[in-house]
């Protein structure tokens, strides 16, 4: 029976720790908000993440970054094409080097 008491003691310590850190209050508030939602969300985990502040960056920030990535990829492709064209032009003016000849 001593084994069960040690487990209970650890559980009680953990509960006190959560209460002291404000975790229980925060979880209670978020669960209350979910309970009071007139239309329950399809994904309760997303609701919890959003209301606990772990949903990630703001949607506007994500969209801005997404647009920037698209723009930079397009610029990268244009620069690759320009580089290819410039190498082709340079190859017209540079005679092919034979092996064994100094540069």
UniProtKB/TrEMBL annotation:
It is found in: Nucleus. InterPro entries: AMY1. This is c-Myc-binding protein. Its main location: nucleus. The keyword Membrane does not apply. One of its GO terms (cellular component) is nucleus. One of its GO terms (molecular function) is transcription coactivator activity. Keywords: Coiled coil, Nucleus. Gene3D superfamilies: 6.10.250.1060. The keyword Chloroplast does not apply. Belongs to the AMY1 family. Residues 62-89 form a coiled coil.
């Amino acid at each position: 029976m001593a084994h069960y008491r040690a487990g209970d003691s650890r559980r009680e310590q953990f509960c006190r720790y959560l209460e002291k850190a404000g975790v229980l209050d925060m979880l209670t508030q978020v669960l209350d908000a979910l309970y009071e939602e007139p239309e329950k969300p399809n994904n309760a985990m997303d609701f919890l993440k959003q209301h606990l502040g772990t949903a990630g960056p703001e949607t506007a920030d994500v969209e801005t970054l997404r647009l920037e990535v698209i723009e930079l990829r397009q610029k990268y492709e244009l620069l690759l094409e320009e580089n290819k064209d410039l190498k082709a032009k340079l190859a017209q003016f540079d005679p092919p080097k034979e092996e064994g000849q100094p540069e």
